[in-house]
Every structure is written in C-alpha cells, then in structure tokens.
Amino acid sequence: MSFPAYPTRVLSTEEIQRYREDGVVMIKGAIDRNWMALVESGIETARGDASLVGRFMSRKVEGYQMDIFLWKRIDALRDLIYYGPFARWAQQLMGAQEVRFFYDQMFVKEPGTDAPTPWHQDLSFWPIRGEQVCSFWIPCDPVNRENSGLLYVRGSHKWPQRFKAISPDYVAAIIDEQMDDIPDINAHPERYELLDWDMEPGDILMFHPLTLHGSYGNQSRTRRRRALALRWVGDDVVYAPSAKRMPIHFEHSSVPGGALQGAAFPRILPEMDAQERAARARPERPSTGKLLRSSLDNAVAAARLALKPNRTASLKQTWSKSDT
Ligand SMILES: O=C(O)CCC(=O)C(=O)O
C-alpha cells in the first residue's frame, strides 16, 4: 500500500467547483471507519491529556474543550495526518503540487454547553498568506444545528473584507484593530445566505479559511459534539507572522516571506520529507518560555481592549435571545 492512502473516492469536478464558489462543501460518507476510529481515539486521548495551550484555550465554560497541534504528541493523529487520505483531498481541492500540514485542532461541546463559536474567518489570524489553504472539519458524533453543527456564509471567502479575529476562545492578542468589524450576522440573517448540514461520523466539511463560519452552543440535552479540524497548505503559501497573528510554539525553520518548512509543518505530498518525519518520532511539547510569552502578550492585549469599551461592544455577536 502506498501512503498517504488514496481516498475511497476522489472529489468530483462538481464538488471542487462548489468549494470554489461557496467556500465550503460537505462530502457525505467520505471517511471510512478505520480512519474515523483514529480520529475518535485521538480526540479521546486529547480530552484526557489537555496541553497547557488547550487548558488556556478551553474557556471557563463547563463542557467546552479545545486544543491544537495535537498530532505533535498523539500518535493516532500523527498517523492520521501522514497516512490518511486527507492530504490527497487537499491536493485536489487546492490544485497544489506540494501539500504541507499546517495544524490540527479539536473542538468538543458536551450536551448543554453554552459556548457558541463566534462568526470568524480563520486566515485573518493565521501567520500565513496565500491562496492554497484549506480546512477539513470532521465530526465524530452526529451533528445538526441544535448540537452546534457549523454554519457558513455562502461565498464570503470572496468578500474583500478581512475581519477581526474573534476566535472561539476569544484570544485578545490576535484581535487586530486595523481589520474590519464582523457584522452581527445573526441579528440580520435575511441579509446572508447561510449554509449548514446534518452530518454523521464519516462525513467531512471542506472549507476555505476566509469563509465566515460559526456555530451555536450545544443546545441538545443528550448529544455531544466532538470534532477535529485539519488545516492544509499548498505551493503558494508563505510564512507571514505578525504581532497580531497566532503564534507558532513548535519548532520549524520557516522564514517570513518564505515557504512553510520544518517539523511543525510537515510535507506530505508529493512525498513525505524524511527529516521532518524523523523529527516526529518523539512527541514535542512547546517550551514553557514560549507559552509564558504568549500568555503575557494576551493579558496585555486583553487589558488594552478592556480600556476601550466601545471597541468591545462592536465585537459583540448575537447567538442567543439574551444577546439581543
Ligand atoms: O468546531 C467549532 O466550533 C469551530 C470550528 C472552526 O472554527 C474551524 O475549524 O475553523
């Protein structure tokens, strides 16, 4: 068998076209149950062993859990990324020769968890720039709007605005004052074309990181919502860090303006990079120094934001009746 695995089915021209036009496409039954078993096992391991960043990112809402760069310490997820069919889908979707893995992220909302994911674009706060970028969102529970299935604003990846990064965990350090305010989409739903799907384990969402997306809290009393996001980059992507973009805490050798490279962003296609793969033989956790630096930056940014009450009000989004 050759790796990464060939998907049980490739994307059709219509599906790729839908992704390009709408900024998101949902593919039913794409992931076979062996790969789904790795997704679920990785999420369950992560839930029982949160990283320091994960503990910081999981807001103080009972039942909400988020963590990133899980594949650096959880072998099931490393194997999923290196050997699963995802890199080949990313290659097709982005029309890229080279495919690198950017990072993974877990989102868990237990039944009744009042933690909406605010409307946001991902690329605005990522320390990269380029066209060939895509995200996959993989639920391992049945999801619909009630238990926090994702909503998308159709075609918003083509809008000219770059919105302030209201990340699900409200990290103040990445809110860039120079960027546009996100409109309060739920207060005026008639102005937008919203897309969402009922999904089952094995289904996958593929979306462009400029497509506005968000979700309600988990309003179901019985159904959990566990999901894993995988982010991919292609040939034209460059490293573009800045003070207001997500810091990378893992080792890599990318330089600003150059291609992503090094152990944090492994090349999977056209062939795996042997050195990067060897570097992942052992789990990596970020140094405490880097994490302390980031949390200090965030505390300073949060204090600055709190001193501007009008700015905070303009970031508000309507997600429940009490928000209106
Ligand atoms: O699962 C969620 O609530 C958020 C997902 C998301 O924003 C993403 O994958 O970019």
Structural summary, described in words:
GO terms for molecular function: 2-oxoglutarate-dependent dioxygenase activity; iron ion binding. This is Phytanoyl-CoA dioxygenase family protein. Helices cover 25% and strands 18% of the residues. With 324 residues, it is α+β, with helices and mostly antiparallel strands. It has one domain (13-323): Jelly Rolls (Sandwich), CATH 2.60.120. Strands 1, 2, 3, 6, 9, 11 and 13 form a seven-stranded antiparallel β-sheet that branches. The protein has a four-stranded antiparallel β-sheet with strand order 4-10-7-8, with no helix packed on it. It has a two-stranded antiparallel sheet with strand order 5-12. The structure holds 2-oxoglutaric acid.
Observed structural traits:
seven-stranded antiparallel beta sheet, four-stranded antiparallel beta sheet, globular, 324 residues, Jelly Rolls, 8 helices
Q: How large a portion of the residues is in β-strands, by DSSP E? A: 15-25%
CATH homologous superfamily descriptor: q2cbj1_9rhob like domain
CATH class equals Mainly Beta
**Under CATH, the topology is which?**
Jelly Rolls
Radius of gyration: 19 Å
Q: At CATH's second level, what is the architecture?
A: Sandwich
Find the count of extended strands (DSSP E, 2+ residues): 13
Low-confidence stretches: none
Element-by-element helix/strand order: HEHHEHHEEEEEEEEEEEHHH
The end-to-end distance, rounded to whole angstroms, is: 55 Å
Ligands and ions found:
2-oxoglutaric acid
List the helices and strands and how they pair.
Layout: H1 13-22, E1 24-27, H2 33-48, H3 52-57, E2 64-68, H4 75-83, H5 86-94, E3 99-109, E4 117-120, E5 128-129, E6 133-139, E7 151-153, E8 194-195, E9 204-207, E10 213-215, E11 225-233, E12 238-239, E13 267-269, H6 274-279, H7 288-306, H8 309-314
Antiparallel strand pairs: 1-9, 2-3, 3-11, 3-13, 4-10, 5-12, 6-9, 6-11, 7-8, 7-10
The protein binds 2-oxoglutaric acid (AKG).
